[in-house]
Design brief:
Number of strands: 0
Order of helices and strands: HHH
Number of helices: 3
Structural class: mainly alpha
Helix content: over 70%
Radius of gyration: 16 Å
Shape: flat
Length: 96
Amino acid sequence: MFGYDWEALIWIAIGFGGQGLFMMRFLVQWWSSEKEKRVVVPVAFWYFSILGGVVLTVYAIHRNDPVFIFGQGLGLIIYFRNLHLHYKGKGRGAAS
């Protein structure tokens, strides 16, 4: 199909799936900000960032692309840290 074998098509689908998850973070953030009439970053933003980042990192590893691997891998560290800070702040009664 389209000059690709089935394995290549599956990996392309995985790559697009990761991009879709990663894109969802922006839609969630935009929707939440519109509802609040101010800029907010909901916790779902970080979960979509992590899910999309993991899938894209796996895809980048499969492609053996060091630039892509580094970019997504570094992002994952930041997303996990921000999620940690979110829940750590919740314990002190901080607003989300």
